[in-house]
Structure formats: structure tokens, C-alpha cells
Specification:
heterodimer; A: mainly alpha; Sodium/glucose cotransporter; globular; disordered C terminus; B: mainly alpha; two-stranded antiparallel ribbon
């Protein structure tokens, strides 16, 4: 069977599974809609968190970015996993004990202020929207490539499916669907990685294969360093970015991960505080499987691509080059007319351009794996994008219905709240779909936004809310506002107002807009601290509440309802 | 016999100490070995891996996983010791 048939079968089967689960577990009460009735096991929750967390960016783009940037790509590997350590040790258990539904809920109650709650809702909505628009685009790209439809149609199909299981199913539907999606996406990622590792290095474990030897007995990484330097590129295992910038970006991504509302909300769904801790551990295990394999896929991919294309006659290129040339994601242009493909760092003489997003998608074709593997990868990419989109939509709908409406219309019935939640999820799908079809032209930049903003707004006030009894509402609001405004201003200045000035010489302290969330976070902490020093301490009952969330016993309220 | 409040203060102190120890390991493997010391460590090779590169792309992630499970284990012990665990 050909690739297209396999894609239809595998994507179709996986979708039938997701929708079936969503219908089977339809949410009855509001509480179930938001947090799965508090009854998800830590293992299942860990898996769902991993699927929620790993988006199209992790599945499709990350290995490609690493392939073309080598050591510098480590910022994503460490940044997007190290955040879970912060989450597990500093946030998850306490937020679970606190026992409300959302991050703005915590901010509003802990800082006894609806103003703080509204600022938090604004941050949560902004972060989630920027993120979900990118996912919709990812869904559209995968659909259009494999189902051979326009990207518009691809996005619309994706919207419909996300709408069905997120809006009808609620959190419980999402949780179990995400468990299924994790299984699909990890299987789809690992199968080609293992095959290619065996082909190239003889070792079935990609993590070991990366440190292994190729046919001629030399180490893969040494050989790759040598090849790249010969072609005029930078060494694979050495960095080009400054140490300061690498440091700042990694920290911003870690802290941003720990501050992302759609990740935090997952830890409200387990029954006990100790489950919240354990669940973060499981989540990281499931994430680490993909994240330690990705650098291997990256190195194998770039090695294979150079090996099979560079220096080959233009009319004898392998089939996969032709397949991807149709999408314009690979461009071969015989500039010097010698009939041979030159791949060089010098843009004047280079004749091969490869889009970094195709590294994972094309890897099975490059390695000449069977067609079903190619179809499987399509299903995996889709699972990654859809699971993240659904989790984000839930945060958006919860923020609107619960944090905004419930706060200002407290007499609202549960039923009305559920309807508002569903309507706002539906509106969010449509808006996200619109941005998926008409991307503002800066989707990649916007995703970097989301992390910087989460790092600069949420993380410090949640940490202070748990670890300081003295932190008051004035400090928290000042911190969130200054951190957010500073980070936003820096990113907008360098990305949109003066993109031509976006060079290391102009950056403050040599920190790029991707890493500026780290500085924003420090500003947030400092202003929190200073403002709270000169304003009255929080009331008695809030101080007691803080003491209470520090102790695990007494949680488990999630069982009620 | 110490009061409940003092006990809880002690519990919290022990908790903070555990977290700080684990976070310093977190910092050393990623920001230390993977970034600040990556270049000198790259002089050491294990198989085909240069050590700094290995920490940045593999070792730090493995360590993160271990850290969380150590935390879970230590905290469960601590909760039991201070009788604040969930039944």
C-alpha cells in the first residue's frame, strides 16, 4: 500500500479512538468538566500531562532545530524538561492542596483580591491563545501534507475534531484521550528512531546510538563535526550563542514551563498531594523518553541528509528529495551548473535548502523505512498537536467561565457555568482556527512570547504565594504587571518595531528576546519584594491558609461533588 | 512535648532543606555541567560523547527524572515522620 492509504488508515483509526473515548467519558458536572472529578491515577495523569505538554513543536520541530543548530539546540532539551523539577518541587503539591481549579483562582484567593485575579486571567488567556494558534497551524500543516488538502481545509478539519472532544468531553474526556494520544505519539516517534539508529550505528537504543560509531568505525558525532566544518559550518557539538544567552534562554524556558497554566491545571486532577508529586515524576519520565531521543533523531537526520544528497549528481537524487521538493520544503538549485549538489555554509555557493520542520516527518523516508511508518509519523504529529490544543482550550474556557463570570456573577448556577464554559471553548476554537488559517506571520515568535510571559508573570507570584507568608496583594500585582510589561516591551521592540536591531550588540546584557523572560522574572521578584515591604501584610486568614497548603493532610476535597 | 505549631515549623524547615539540596543538583547538572562548564568538560570523552555535550543533551534530563523521584520518596518519608501524610 502507498503512503497516502496508510496515512488515511492510521490517522482515521487514531481519531476514531480519541472521539470514542471523549464520548464514553462525557462530563456531567462542572467539576468533572474542569478537573476530571479529581479521580485520575498519577500514572494516567502523568501520561496525559506529557501529551498535553508535548506539542507539534516538540514532535515535529524540535529535532529539526537541533539538527541545524547542534549544541545550541540544548536550550530546548534542558529548558523544556528542567521546568518539571521546579513544578514538582515548588508548585504542584501546594497547588493541589489548595484545591481550586485554576491558576487565577489561586492568585485571586491567595492575594485576596479580584484585581489580582483579573490580571492573572489576562495573563492566562494571553499565554494560552498565543500557544493554541500555533497548534492549529501545526494541525493544518500535517493534514495538508498527508491528506493532500489545502491548509485551510486542514485547519477546519482539526478545529472540528478539537471542538468535539474538548467541548463535549471536558477534562475527563481530555485526560483519557490524552493518554491514548501519548501512546500514539511516542510509538510514532520511537519506531523510526530505533530503525534509523540500527541502520546507522547498529545500536537499537537511539540514546546510545548517538554516542556510537558509524560503519567506518569512527564516532558519529566526531564524523558529523568533521563533515560540517569541512562544509564551512560550525561544529555540531560546540555552541555559537554566547554562554549568557544560552543560560538566560534555558532558565526562561524552564521557569516558563513551570508557569504555564495548562500544565499547572493538570495537577489539580489527581486525588492526593502525594499523587501530585508522583504524577510530575511520571510526566517527566514520559517526556524524557521523547526528549532524550530527539537529539539522536536530529544528529542521524542531518548526517543522513548530508550523506545522501550533498555531493550527489542532481539527476540521481533519492526519491524522498523529490517528494518533499513538491512542498517547497526542500529546494535544490544547481547554481554553478555542474550537475552536482553542493551543500555549503556560504549562501552564495550553497545549492541545497532544507526546511528544519521536515526532519522528523521526512526521516522515515530518508532511511527508506516501510510506508506504514510514514503514516504512523503523521498520526503521531497529529496526536501531539491536538492534545495540546485541547488542553489549552480547556484553560481558556475555564478562565472565562470560572475566573471571570463566577467572580462577578456569583449566584450563577452550575448549569449556566457549564454552558458558558462550552460556549467560550467554541469561540476560542473559532478564533484559534482563524489564526491558524491566517497566521499573523510570526507564529514561531509568538510561541517564544508565551514562555517569556509565563516566566515573568505567574511563576514569581505563585512561588512567593507559597513560600512567603508576608507577600501581599500590592506586591503581587506590582510584580505581575512590571514583569509582564517589561518582557512584552522588550520582545515587541526587538521582534516587531526594530527587527533589524535584533543583534547581540544591541541586546541588554547580551540576552536575546527568547531569554528575556529571565530578566522579567527577576524584575517581578524584586518589585514584589519591595512593594510588599512598604504595604500592610496579608490578613490573618490568608496567612493561615498559607500554613495550611504547606501540609499535605486534609487535601482530597476533589472527591466531593 | 512540642506544640503542633512548632512541629509544623520544623516540618517546613526540613521540607525547604530537601528542596534546596535537590535544586542545587538541578542547577549543577544543567546550568553548571551543561552550560557554564560545558567547554572544559568537552575535553573528556565517554564513548562518542563529549561530556559537556552529553550533559546538555542527555545527562541533565536523566538527572531531572531521578531528582523528582528522590523528592517523592523523601517527602513521603517526611510526611510520615511528622504525621501529616494523607490516609
Amino acid at each position: 500500500m502507498d503512503i497516502l492509504t496508510w496515512t488515511y488508515i492510521l490517522v482515521g483509526l487514531s481519531f476514531a479512538l480519541y472521539i470514542g473515548i471523549a464520548i464514553y467519558t462525557r462530563a456531567g458536572s462542572t467539576k468533572e468538566f474542569y478537573t476530571a472529578g479529581g479521580g485520575v491515577s498519577p500514572l494516567a495523569n502523568g501520561m496525559a500531562t506529557a501529551a498535553d505538554w508535548m506539542s507539534a513543536a516538540s514532535f515535529i520541530s524540535m529535532a529539526g532545530i537541533i539538527a541545524f543548530s547542534g549544541y545550541d539546540g540544548s536550550v530546548y532539551l534542558m529548558g523544556w524538561t528542567g521546568g518539571y523539577v521546579l513544578l514538582a518541587l515548588l508548585l504542584a503539591p501546594y497547588l493541589r492542596k489548595f484545591g481550586k481549579f485554576t491558576v487565577p483562582d489561586f492568585v485571586g484567593d491567595r492575594y485576596y483580591s479580584n484585581k489580582a485575579r483579573v490580571v492573572a486571567v489576562f495573563c492566562a488567556l494571553f499565554i494560552s491563545f498565543t500557544y493554541v494558534a500555533g497548534q492549529m497551524r501545526g494541525v493544518g500543516i500535517v493534514f495538508s501534507r498527508y491528506l493532500e488538502v489545502d491548509i485551510e481545509k486542514g485547519v477546519i478539519i482539526g478545529m472540528t475534531i478539537v471542538f468535539f472532544y474538548a467541548v463535549l468531553g471536558g477534562m475527563k474526556g481530555i485526560t483519557y484521550t490524552q493518554v491514548a494520544q501519548y501512546c500514539v505519539l511516542i510509538f510514532a516517534f520511537m519506531v523510526p528512531a530505533i530503525f534509523i539508529s540500527i541502520q546507522l550505528t547498529g545500536n537499537p537504543v537511539p540514546q546510545l546510538g548517538l554516542g556510537g560509531t558509524v560503519q567506518d568505525g569512527s564516532y558519529l558525532l566526531d564524523k558529523l563535526d568533521g563533515i560540517l566544518v569541512d562544509l564551512g559550518f560550525h561544529q555540531y557539538t560546540a555552541g555559537r550563542k554566547s554562554v549568557v544567552d544560552i543560560f538566560a534562554i534555558t532558565l526562561a524556558l524552564m521557569v516558563g514551563t513551570a508557569g504555564l497554566p495548562h500544565v499547572i491545571v493538570r495537577f489539580f486532577t489527581v486525588p492526593r498531594v502525594k499523587d501530585a508529586r508522583l504524577s510530575a515524576g511520571y510526566a517527566l519520565v514520559f517526556i524524557a523518553i521523547l526528549y532524550t531521543t530527539a537529539p539522536a533523531v536530529a544528529a542521524f537526520g542531518i548526517y543522513n541528509a548530508i550523506d545522501t544528497v550533498a555531493g550527489q549528481p542532481v539527476d540521481q537524487l533519492p526519491d524522498w528529495v523529490g517528494n518533499w521538493q513538491k512542498t517547497n520544503l526542500i529546494v535544490v538549485d544547481d547554481v554553478n551548473q555542474d550537475g552536482v549538489v553542493q551543500y555549503l555554509a556560504d549562501p552564495e555557493k550553497n545549492e541545497l535548502t532544507v526546511d528544519k520542520d521536515i526532519m522528523v516527518l521526512a526521516a522515515p523516508e530518508i532511511a527508506e523505512l516501510p510506508n506504514w511508518v510514514v503514516g504512523l509519523v503523521a498520526a503521531g504529529g497529529m496526536a501531539a498537536a491536538l492534545s495540546t490544543a485541547a488542553g489549552l482550550l480547556l484553560v481558556i474556557s475555564t478562565s472565562v467561565s470560572r475566573d471571570l463570570f463566577r467572580t462577578f456573577v456569583p449566584q450563577m448556577t452550575e448549569k449556566t457555568e457549564l454552558i458558558i464554559a462550552r460556549v467560550s471553548a467554541a469561540v476560542a476554537v473559532v478564533i484559534a482556527g482563524y489564526f491558524g488559517i491566517n497566521p499573523p506571520g510570526f507564529v514561531a515568535e509568538v510561541v517564544a512570547f508565551a514562555f517569556g510571559l509565563a516566566a515573568a508573570s505567574f511563576f514569581p507570584v505563585i512561588i512567593m504565594g507559597i513560600f512567603s507568608t508576608r507577600m501581599n496583594k500590592e506586591g503581587a500585582i506590582a510584580g505581575m504587571v512590571t514583569g509582564l510589561v517589561f518582557t512584552l516591551a522588550y520582545i515587541i521592540y526587538f521582534k516587531f518595531i526594530h527587527p533589524e536591531a535584533n543583534t547581540p550588540e544591541n541586546w541588554w546584557f547580551g540576552i536575546s528576546p527568547e531569554g528575556i523572560g529571565t530578566v522579567g522574572m527577576l524584575i517581578n521578584f524584586v518589585s514584589c519584594f519591595l512593594v510588599s515591604k512598604f504595604t500592610p501584610p496579608p490578613p490573618e486568614d490568608v496567612q493561615e491558609m498559607i500554613q495550611d497548603i504547606r501540609i499535605p493532610r486534609g487535601a482530597g476535597k476533589a472527591h466531593d461533588h | 512535648m512540642p506544640t503542633h505549631k512548632e512541629q509544623m515549623k520544623k516540618y517546613w524547615k526540613r521540607n525547604i532543606r530537601t528542596v534546596l539540596i535537590l535544586l542545587s543538583v538541578w542547577f549543577v547538572v544543567s546550568f553548571g555541567f551543561g552550560i557554564l562548564l560545558a567547554e572544559p568538560l568537552n575535553a573528556i570523552k565517554i564513548g562518542g560523547y563529549q561530556l559537556g555535550f552529553w550533559f546538555a543533551q542527555q545527562g541533565s534530563i536523566f538527572t531531572f527524572v531521578i531528582l523528582i523521584f528522590v523528592y517523592v520518596y523523601r517527602m513521603n518519608k517526611l510526611d510520615e515522620e511528622f504525621d501529616v501524610n494523607e490516609k
